Amino acid sequence: MKIAMIGSGYVGLVSGACFADFGHDVVCVDKDASKIERLLDGVMPIYEPGLDELVARNVQAGRLRFTTELAEGVAGADAIFIAVGTPSRRGDGHADLTYVHAAAKEIGEALTGYAVVVTKSTVPVGTGDEVERIIREAAPQAQFGVVSNPEFLREGAAIDDFKRPDRIVIGSEDDRATEVMRQVYRPLYLNAAPILVTRRRTAELIKYAGNAFLATKITFINEIADLCEKVGADVKDVSRGIGLDNRIGSKFLHAGPGYGGSCFPKDTLALLKTSQDYDAPQRIVEAVVAVNDTRKRAMGRKIIAAMGGDVRGKTVAVLGLTFKPNTDDMRDSPAIAVIQTLQDAGATVKAYDPEGVEQAKKVLDNVDYCDGPYSAIEGADALAIVTEWDEFRALDLARVKSLLASPVLVDLRNIYIPDEVRAAGFDYTSIGR
Ligand code: UDX
Protein backbone atom coordinates (compact mmCIF):
# COMPACT_ATOMS: atom_id res chain seq x y z
CA MET A 1 0.00 0.00 0.00
CA LYS A 2 1.07 3.58 -0.58
CA ILE A 3 0.67 5.76 2.47
CA ALA A 4 1.09 9.51 2.92
CA MET A 5 1.55 10.80 6.46
CA ILE A 6 0.78 14.52 6.74
CA GLY A 7 2.58 15.87 9.82
CA SER A 8 5.80 14.31 11.07
CA GLY A 9 5.41 14.97 14.78
CA TYR A 10 5.16 12.31 17.47
CA VAL A 11 2.22 10.39 16.08
CA GLY A 12 2.97 10.97 12.38
CA LEU A 13 6.61 10.01 12.52
CA VAL A 14 6.14 6.93 14.69
CA SER A 15 3.11 5.72 12.71
CA GLY A 16 4.84 6.40 9.38
CA ALA A 17 8.01 4.57 10.39
CA CYS A 18 6.03 1.60 11.77
CA PHE A 19 3.84 1.32 8.64
CA ALA A 20 7.05 1.31 6.56
CA ASP A 21 8.46 -1.39 8.82
CA PHE A 22 5.40 -3.50 8.00
CA GLY A 23 6.31 -3.21 4.32
CA HIS A 24 4.12 -0.31 3.18
CA ASP A 25 5.53 2.46 0.99
CA VAL A 26 5.39 5.59 3.17
CA VAL A 27 6.02 9.28 2.53
CA CYS A 28 6.13 11.52 5.62
CA VAL A 29 5.30 15.15 4.90
CA ASP A 30 5.94 18.18 7.08
CA LYS A 31 5.81 21.91 6.37
CA ASP A 32 8.79 22.50 8.65
CA ALA A 33 11.69 22.40 6.17
CA SER A 34 14.36 22.23 8.87
CA LYS A 35 12.62 19.24 10.48
CA ILE A 36 12.54 17.41 7.13
CA GLU A 37 16.18 18.32 6.47
CA ARG A 38 17.21 16.89 9.84
CA LEU A 39 15.14 13.76 9.26
CA LEU A 40 16.86 13.28 5.92
CA ASP A 41 20.14 13.47 7.85
CA GLY A 42 18.85 10.85 10.29
CA VAL A 43 18.33 13.33 13.17
CA MET A 44 15.06 12.73 15.08
CA PRO A 45 13.00 15.78 16.13
CA ILE A 46 11.90 13.98 19.32
CA TYR A 47 13.45 11.63 21.84
CA GLU A 48 11.78 8.23 21.55
CA PRO A 49 13.60 4.97 22.32
CA GLY A 50 14.34 2.95 19.15
CA LEU A 51 12.96 5.50 16.71
CA ASP A 52 16.23 6.55 15.03
CA GLU A 53 17.11 2.93 14.29
CA LEU A 54 13.61 2.18 12.95
CA VAL A 55 13.68 5.24 10.69
CA ALA A 56 17.21 4.52 9.42
CA ARG A 57 16.35 0.90 8.60
CA ASN A 58 13.29 1.83 6.56
CA VAL A 59 14.88 4.79 4.80
CA GLN A 60 17.68 2.48 3.73
CA ALA A 61 15.19 -0.11 2.49
CA GLY A 62 13.56 2.62 0.37
CA ARG A 63 10.18 2.25 2.09
CA LEU A 64 10.25 5.55 4.01
CA ARG A 65 10.75 8.99 2.51
CA PHE A 66 10.47 12.57 3.78
CA THR A 67 9.34 15.67 1.95
CA THR A 68 7.96 19.16 2.50
CA GLU A 69 5.74 18.79 -0.60
CA LEU A 70 2.31 17.52 0.36
CA ALA A 71 1.31 16.93 -3.27
CA GLU A 72 4.29 14.64 -3.71
CA GLY A 73 3.14 12.44 -0.84
CA VAL A 74 -0.53 12.47 -1.83
CA ALA A 75 -0.01 11.53 -5.50
CA GLY A 76 -1.01 7.90 -5.94
CA ALA A 77 -1.48 7.26 -2.20
CA ASP A 78 -4.08 4.69 -1.11
CA ALA A 79 -4.36 6.20 2.36
CA ILE A 80 -3.53 9.75 3.42
CA PHE A 81 -3.19 10.20 7.17
CA ILE A 82 -3.69 13.59 8.79
CA ALA A 83 -1.40 13.57 11.84
CA VAL A 84 -0.90 17.29 12.41
CA GLY A 85 -1.09 18.97 15.82
CA THR A 86 -4.38 19.84 17.53
CA PRO A 87 -3.20 22.05 20.41
CA SER A 88 -5.58 23.63 22.93
CA ARG A 89 -6.79 26.90 21.50
CA ARG A 90 -5.56 29.82 23.57
CA GLY A 91 -8.34 31.22 25.70
CA ASP A 92 -11.10 28.63 25.49
CA GLY A 93 -9.47 25.18 25.56
CA HIS A 94 -11.18 24.03 22.34
CA ALA A 95 -9.00 21.86 20.10
CA ASP A 96 -7.43 24.16 17.50
CA LEU A 97 -8.26 22.60 14.13
CA THR A 98 -6.47 25.15 11.94
CA TYR A 99 -3.79 22.66 10.88
CA VAL A 100 -6.28 19.84 10.27
CA HIS A 101 -8.48 22.02 8.08
CA ALA A 102 -5.50 23.42 6.16
CA ALA A 103 -4.22 19.88 5.53
CA ALA A 104 -7.67 18.77 4.31
CA LYS A 105 -7.81 21.63 1.81
CA GLU A 106 -4.34 20.89 0.47
CA ILE A 107 -5.11 17.18 0.23
CA GLY A 108 -8.25 17.98 -1.76
CA GLU A 109 -6.20 20.07 -4.17
CA ALA A 110 -3.62 17.32 -4.59
CA LEU A 111 -5.81 14.19 -4.91
CA THR A 112 -5.03 12.20 -8.03
CA GLY A 113 -7.38 9.20 -7.72
CA TYR A 114 -9.42 7.35 -5.10
CA ALA A 115 -7.85 7.65 -1.67
CA VAL A 116 -8.93 7.32 1.92
CA VAL A 117 -8.23 10.38 4.06
CA VAL A 118 -7.67 9.31 7.64
CA THR A 119 -7.73 11.59 10.66
CA LYS A 120 -5.20 10.24 13.11
CA SER A 121 -4.83 13.49 15.02
CA THR A 122 -7.08 13.57 18.09
CA VAL A 123 -10.02 15.60 16.83
CA PRO A 124 -13.38 16.57 18.31
CA VAL A 125 -16.52 14.73 17.28
CA GLY A 126 -17.71 15.95 13.89
CA THR A 127 -14.28 16.86 12.52
CA GLY A 128 -14.50 14.03 9.97
CA ASP A 129 -17.64 15.64 8.52
CA GLU A 130 -15.82 18.95 8.23
CA VAL A 131 -12.74 17.35 6.64
CA GLU A 132 -15.03 15.68 4.09
CA ARG A 133 -16.75 18.98 3.33
CA ILE A 134 -13.45 20.84 2.87
CA ILE A 135 -12.05 18.22 0.52
CA ARG A 136 -15.30 18.11 -1.47
CA GLU A 137 -15.15 21.90 -1.83
CA ALA A 138 -11.53 21.80 -3.01
CA ALA A 139 -12.13 18.86 -5.36
CA PRO A 140 -15.81 18.56 -6.35
CA GLN A 141 -15.14 15.61 -8.69
CA ALA A 142 -12.71 13.66 -6.53
CA GLN A 143 -13.39 10.16 -5.25
CA PHE A 144 -12.40 9.68 -1.65
CA GLY A 145 -13.48 8.40 1.73
CA VAL A 146 -12.87 10.03 5.12
CA VAL A 147 -12.31 7.83 8.14
CA SER A 148 -11.34 8.38 11.76
CA ASN A 149 -8.55 6.22 13.12
CA PRO A 150 -7.47 7.47 16.54
CA GLU A 151 -4.01 6.62 17.81
CA PHE A 152 -3.46 5.38 21.35
CA LEU A 153 0.36 5.18 21.52
CA ARG A 154 2.15 6.48 24.60
CA GLU A 155 5.32 8.52 24.51
CA GLY A 156 8.35 6.53 25.61
CA ALA A 157 6.72 3.27 24.50
CA ALA A 158 5.44 4.53 21.17
CA ILE A 159 6.84 1.92 18.78
CA ASP A 160 5.75 -1.04 20.84
CA ASP A 161 2.34 0.49 21.46
CA PHE A 162 1.88 1.09 17.75
CA LYS A 163 2.98 -2.38 16.71
CA ARG A 164 1.12 -4.24 19.45
CA PRO A 165 -1.97 -2.16 20.15
CA ASP A 166 -4.78 -3.36 22.43
CA ARG A 167 -7.14 -2.54 19.58
CA ILE A 168 -7.42 -0.66 16.30
CA VAL A 169 -10.42 1.65 15.96
CA ILE A 170 -11.72 2.59 12.53
CA GLY A 171 -14.62 4.99 12.20
CA SER A 172 -15.96 4.80 8.69
CA GLU A 173 -19.08 5.71 6.76
CA ASP A 174 -18.48 3.49 3.72
CA ASP A 175 -17.33 -0.03 2.90
CA ARG A 176 -14.74 0.91 0.29
CA ALA A 177 -12.85 3.08 2.75
CA THR A 178 -13.13 0.43 5.47
CA GLU A 179 -11.62 -2.17 3.16
CA VAL A 180 -8.61 0.08 2.42
CA MET A 181 -8.10 0.53 6.16
CA ARG A 182 -8.24 -3.21 6.72
CA GLN A 183 -5.45 -3.59 4.16
CA VAL A 184 -3.41 -0.83 5.81
CA TYR A 185 -3.66 -2.59 9.19
CA ARG A 186 -3.47 -6.15 7.87
CA PRO A 187 0.03 -6.77 9.29
CA LEU A 188 -1.15 -5.64 12.73
CA TYR A 189 -4.34 -7.59 13.05
CA LEU A 190 -2.49 -10.60 11.80
CA ASN A 191 -0.60 -9.91 15.06
CA ALA A 192 -3.94 -10.54 16.82
CA ALA A 193 -4.90 -6.90 17.45
CA PRO A 194 -8.70 -6.69 17.41
CA ILE A 195 -10.07 -4.26 14.88
CA LEU A 196 -13.19 -2.34 15.85
CA VAL A 197 -15.16 -0.74 13.03
CA THR A 198 -17.66 1.91 14.09
CA ARG A 199 -19.37 4.97 12.66
CA ARG A 200 -17.02 7.92 12.28
CA ARG A 201 -18.34 10.06 15.14
CA THR A 202 -18.18 7.10 17.49
CA ALA A 203 -14.50 6.53 16.72
CA GLU A 204 -13.77 10.20 17.32
CA LEU A 205 -15.44 10.00 20.72
CA ILE A 206 -13.70 6.72 21.68
CA LYS A 207 -10.35 8.50 21.79
CA TYR A 208 -11.58 11.29 24.08
CA ALA A 209 -13.58 8.95 26.30
CA GLY A 210 -10.55 6.66 26.63
CA ASN A 211 -8.15 9.42 27.62
CA ALA A 212 -10.68 10.99 29.99
CA PHE A 213 -11.26 7.63 31.65
CA LEU A 214 -7.52 7.07 32.17
CA ALA A 215 -7.12 10.60 33.54
CA THR A 216 -10.02 9.82 35.89
CA LYS A 217 -8.38 6.62 37.10
CA ILE A 218 -5.15 8.47 37.92
CA THR A 219 -6.98 11.31 39.62
CA PHE A 220 -9.12 8.90 41.61
CA ILE A 221 -6.12 7.10 43.05
CA ASN A 222 -4.40 10.44 43.73
CA GLU A 223 -7.32 11.53 45.92
CA ILE A 224 -7.41 8.12 47.60
CA ALA A 225 -3.69 8.64 48.30
CA ASP A 226 -4.48 11.89 50.11
CA LEU A 227 -7.00 10.01 52.23
CA CYS A 228 -4.45 7.24 52.90
CA GLU A 229 -2.10 9.82 54.37
CA LYS A 230 -4.80 11.03 56.77
CA VAL A 231 -5.99 7.61 57.91
CA GLY A 232 -2.63 5.84 57.97
CA ALA A 233 -3.20 3.51 55.01
CA ASP A 234 -0.78 2.64 52.17
CA VAL A 235 -1.96 3.66 48.69
CA LYS A 236 0.34 1.17 46.95
CA ASP A 237 -1.44 -1.65 48.70
CA VAL A 238 -4.83 -0.06 48.07
CA SER A 239 -3.97 0.13 44.34
CA ARG A 240 -2.92 -3.46 44.29
CA GLY A 241 -5.90 -4.53 46.33
CA ILE A 242 -8.42 -2.91 44.01
CA GLY A 243 -6.43 -3.47 40.79
CA LEU A 244 -6.46 -7.25 41.18
CA ASP A 245 -10.19 -7.06 40.60
CA ASN A 246 -10.39 -7.67 36.85
CA ARG A 247 -13.25 -5.25 36.55
CA ILE A 248 -10.95 -2.47 37.76
CA GLY A 249 -7.56 -3.55 36.41
CA SER A 250 -4.17 -2.66 37.86
CA LYS A 251 -2.94 -0.15 35.30
CA PHE A 252 -3.03 3.64 35.73
CA LEU A 253 -3.46 3.36 39.46
CA HIS A 254 -0.06 4.78 40.43
CA ALA A 255 -0.51 7.76 42.71
CA GLY A 256 1.78 10.66 41.91
CA PRO A 257 2.02 14.42 41.39
CA GLY A 258 -0.83 14.53 38.84
CA TYR A 259 -0.93 13.71 35.14
CA GLY A 260 0.73 15.90 32.53
CA GLY A 261 1.86 15.51 28.94
CA SER A 262 0.62 16.36 25.51
CA CYS A 263 -2.64 14.40 25.64
CA PHE A 264 -4.52 14.09 28.91
CA PRO A 265 -4.62 17.81 29.83
CA LYS A 266 -5.51 18.89 26.29
CA ASP A 267 -7.99 16.11 25.53
CA THR A 268 -9.91 16.36 28.79
CA LEU A 269 -10.35 20.10 28.20
CA ALA A 270 -11.46 19.54 24.62
CA LEU A 271 -13.98 16.91 25.76
CA LEU A 272 -15.43 19.41 28.23
CA LYS A 273 -15.81 21.99 25.46
CA THR A 274 -17.60 19.48 23.25
CA SER A 275 -19.84 18.45 26.15
CA GLN A 276 -20.80 22.11 26.69
CA ASP A 277 -21.47 22.67 23.00
CA TYR A 278 -23.80 19.67 22.93
CA ASP A 279 -25.33 20.39 26.32
CA ALA A 280 -24.28 17.05 27.83
CA PRO A 281 -22.20 18.05 30.87
CA GLN A 282 -19.38 15.69 31.87
CA ARG A 283 -19.27 16.49 35.56
CA ILE A 284 -16.87 13.71 36.44
CA VAL A 285 -14.31 14.92 33.90
CA GLU A 286 -14.84 18.50 35.09
CA ALA A 287 -13.88 17.40 38.59
CA VAL A 288 -10.88 15.44 37.29
CA VAL A 289 -9.50 18.49 35.48
CA ALA A 290 -9.96 20.73 38.51
CA VAL A 291 -8.46 18.22 40.96
CA ASN A 292 -5.44 17.57 38.75
CA ASP A 293 -4.81 21.29 38.23
CA THR A 294 -4.65 22.07 41.93
CA ARG A 295 -2.63 18.96 42.72
CA LYS A 296 0.52 20.10 40.95
CA ARG A 297 1.13 23.15 43.13
CA ALA A 298 0.00 21.18 46.16
CA MET A 299 2.96 18.89 45.49
CA GLY A 300 5.28 21.91 45.73
CA ARG A 301 3.70 22.73 49.09
CA LYS A 302 4.19 19.13 50.19
CA ILE A 303 7.94 19.52 49.63
CA ILE A 304 7.91 22.81 51.53
CA ALA A 305 6.11 21.16 54.46
CA ALA A 306 8.65 18.30 54.48
CA MET A 307 11.36 20.95 54.80
CA GLY A 308 9.76 22.44 57.89
CA GLY A 309 7.46 24.97 56.25
CA ASP A 310 9.96 27.70 55.40
CA VAL A 311 12.22 27.34 52.38
CA ARG A 312 13.39 30.92 52.03
CA GLY A 313 17.10 30.82 51.27
CA LYS A 314 17.10 27.02 51.07
CA THR A 315 17.99 24.85 48.08
CA VAL A 316 15.94 21.96 46.69
CA ALA A 317 17.41 19.33 44.36
CA VAL A 318 14.77 18.18 41.87
CA LEU A 319 15.32 14.90 40.02
CA GLY A 320 13.16 14.43 36.95
CA LEU A 321 11.54 17.24 34.97
CA THR A 322 9.67 15.62 32.08
CA PHE A 323 6.00 14.67 32.55
CA LYS A 324 7.06 11.02 32.63
CA PRO A 325 10.25 9.02 31.98
CA ASN A 326 11.70 8.12 28.56
CA THR A 327 10.69 11.32 26.86
CA ASP A 328 12.08 14.84 26.59
CA ASP A 329 8.54 16.24 26.67
CA MET A 330 7.89 18.98 29.23
CA ARG A 331 4.33 19.79 28.15
CA ASP A 332 2.16 20.29 31.24
CA SER A 333 4.74 18.46 33.32
CA PRO A 334 3.93 18.57 37.06
CA ALA A 335 7.59 19.54 37.61
CA ILE A 336 6.85 23.01 36.22
CA ALA A 337 4.24 23.87 38.87
CA VAL A 338 6.25 22.11 41.60
CA ILE A 339 9.37 24.15 40.85
CA GLN A 340 7.47 27.42 40.47
CA THR A 341 5.79 26.85 43.85
CA LEU A 342 9.20 26.27 45.45
CA GLN A 343 10.63 29.37 43.81
CA ASP A 344 7.60 31.48 44.78
CA ALA A 345 8.27 30.47 48.39
CA GLY A 346 11.86 31.69 48.13
CA ALA A 347 13.74 28.44 47.45
CA THR A 348 16.58 27.96 44.99
CA VAL A 349 16.18 24.95 42.69
CA LYS A 350 18.90 22.72 41.26
CA ALA A 351 17.64 20.12 38.80
CA TYR A 352 18.67 17.15 36.74
CA ASP A 353 16.80 15.24 34.04
CA PRO A 354 18.33 12.68 31.65
CA GLU A 355 16.61 14.06 28.51
CA GLY A 356 14.40 17.01 29.44
CA VAL A 357 16.81 19.84 30.25
CA GLU A 358 16.75 21.44 26.81
CA GLN A 359 12.94 21.65 26.81
CA ALA A 360 12.86 22.59 30.51
CA LYS A 361 15.03 25.64 29.85
CA LYS A 362 12.28 27.00 27.60
CA VAL A 363 9.64 26.94 30.36
CA LEU A 364 11.52 27.28 33.66
CA ASP A 365 13.68 30.25 34.60
CA ASN A 366 16.31 30.55 37.29
CA VAL A 367 16.91 26.84 37.68
CA ASP A 368 20.46 25.60 38.14
CA TYR A 369 20.58 22.67 35.68
CA CYS A 370 23.11 20.01 36.67
CA ASP A 371 24.68 17.24 34.63
CA GLY A 372 23.96 14.34 36.96
CA PRO A 373 21.82 13.39 39.96
CA TYR A 374 24.63 13.69 42.50
CA SER A 375 25.79 17.12 41.36
CA ALA A 376 22.17 18.31 41.74
CA ILE A 377 21.96 16.83 45.23
CA GLU A 378 25.28 18.22 46.45
CA GLY A 379 24.72 20.87 49.11
CA ALA A 380 20.90 20.89 48.77
CA ASP A 381 18.62 21.05 51.81
CA ALA A 382 16.24 18.46 50.37
CA LEU A 383 15.91 16.03 47.48
CA ALA A 384 12.62 15.81 45.58
CA ILE A 385 12.04 13.04 43.03
CA VAL A 386 9.42 14.31 40.61
CA THR A 387 9.72 11.94 37.61
CA GLU A 388 10.52 8.24 37.97
CA TRP A 389 13.39 7.78 35.51
CA ASP A 390 15.01 4.35 36.04
CA GLU A 391 18.32 5.90 37.00
CA PHE A 392 16.71 7.42 40.11
CA ARG A 393 15.41 4.09 41.38
CA ALA A 394 18.67 2.86 42.85
CA LEU A 395 20.54 5.94 44.01
CA ASP A 396 23.46 5.31 46.37
CA LEU A 397 21.60 6.42 49.51
CA ALA A 398 24.73 6.73 51.66
CA ARG A 399 26.22 9.05 49.08
CA VAL A 400 22.98 11.02 48.75
CA LYS A 401 22.86 11.48 52.53
CA SER A 402 26.44 12.65 52.73
CA LEU A 403 25.90 15.16 49.91
CA LEU A 404 22.68 16.67 51.30
CA ALA A 405 22.88 19.47 53.88
CA SER A 406 19.91 17.81 55.63
CA PRO A 407 18.58 14.30 54.87
CA VAL A 408 15.12 15.23 53.56
CA LEU A 409 13.82 13.03 50.72
CA VAL A 410 10.47 13.69 49.07
CA ASP A 411 9.50 10.93 46.64
CA LEU A 412 6.51 12.06 44.56
CA ARG A 413 6.52 8.77 42.58
CA ASN A 414 6.76 6.24 45.42
CA ILE A 415 9.86 4.57 43.97
CA TYR A 416 11.51 3.93 47.36
CA ILE A 417 10.48 1.65 50.20
CA PRO A 418 9.72 3.83 53.24
CA ASP A 419 11.28 1.50 55.87
CA GLU A 420 14.49 1.17 53.87
CA VAL A 421 15.05 4.87 53.34
CA ARG A 422 14.14 5.69 56.93
CA ALA A 423 16.58 3.04 58.10
CA ALA A 424 19.22 4.77 55.97
CA GLY A 425 18.64 7.90 58.04
CA PHE A 426 16.33 9.91 55.83
CA ASP A 427 13.37 12.01 56.75
CA TYR A 428 11.22 10.44 54.01
CA THR A 429 7.93 11.69 52.54
CA SER A 430 6.06 9.96 49.73
CA ILE A 431 2.54 9.87 48.31
CA GLY A 432 -0.27 8.20 50.20
CA ARG A 433 1.87 6.08 52.52
C1 UDX B 1 -1.46 9.09 26.90
C2 UDX B 1 -2.29 7.81 26.67
O1 UDX B 1 -1.83 6.78 27.55
C3 UDX B 1 -2.21 7.38 25.23
O2 UDX B 1 -3.05 6.25 25.01
C4 UDX B 1 -2.64 8.53 24.33
O3 UDX B 1 -2.49 8.17 22.98
C5 UDX B 1 -1.83 9.78 24.63
O4 UDX B 1 -1.91 10.10 26.02
P1 UDX B 1 1.11 9.71 27.24
O5 UDX B 1 0.64 11.11 27.47
O6 UDX B 1 2.27 9.50 26.33
O7 UDX B 1 -0.09 8.80 26.68
O8 UDX B 1 1.54 9.12 28.67
P2 UDX B 1 0.97 8.15 29.80
O9 UDX B 1 1.94 7.06 30.01
O10 UDX B 1 -0.42 7.77 29.53
O11 UDX B 1 1.06 9.11 31.09
C6 UDX B 1 0.31 10.33 31.17
C7 UDX B 1 0.52 10.99 32.50
O12 UDX B 1 -0.14 10.27 33.54
C8 UDX B 1 1.98 11.11 32.96
O13 UDX B 1 2.16 12.39 33.53
C9 UDX B 1 2.14 10.01 33.97
O14 UDX B 1 3.14 10.27 34.91
C10 UDX B 1 0.76 10.02 34.62
N1 UDX B 1 0.39 8.74 35.23
C11 UDX B 1 0.16 7.64 34.47
C12 UDX B 1 0.22 8.66 36.62
O15 UDX B 1 0.41 9.64 37.33
N2 UDX B 1 -0.16 7.47 37.16
C13 UDX B 1 -0.40 6.36 36.42
O16 UDX B 1 -0.76 5.32 37.00
C14 UDX B 1 -0.21 6.44 35.02
Automatic annotation (TrEMBL):
Its EC number is 1.1.1.22. The keyword NAD applies. Substrate binds at F152, L153, R154, E155, K207, F252, L253, H254, A255, G256, G260, K324. It comes from the Bacteria. PROSITE patterns: PROKAR_LIPOPROTEIN (PS51257). It catalyses: UDP-alpha-D-glucose + 2 NAD(+) + H2O = UDP-alpha-D-glucuronate + 2 NADH + 3 H(+). NAD(+) binds at D30, K35, T86, T122, E155, K266, R331. Residues 317-418 form the UDP-glucose/GDP-mannose dehydrogenase C-terminal domain. GO terms for molecular function: NAD binding; UDP-glucose 6-dehydrogenase activity. The keyword NAD applies. Gene3D superfamilies: Cytochrome c1, transmembrane anchor, C-terminal (1.20.5.100), NAD(P)-binding Rossmann-like Domain (3.40.50.720). Signal peptide: none annotated. Pathway: Nucleotide-sugar biosynthesis; UDP-alpha-D-glucuronate biosynthesis; UDP-alpha-D-glucuronate from UDP-alpha-D-glucose: step 1/1. It holds the Pfam family UDPG_MGDP_dh. GO terms for biological process: polysaccharide biosynthetic process; UDP-glucuronate biosynthetic process. The active site is at C263 (nucleophile). Keywords: NAD, Oxidoreductase. It is an enzyme of class 1 (oxidoreductase). Belongs to the UDP-glucose/GDP-mannose dehydrogenase family. This is UDP-glucose 6-dehydrogenase.
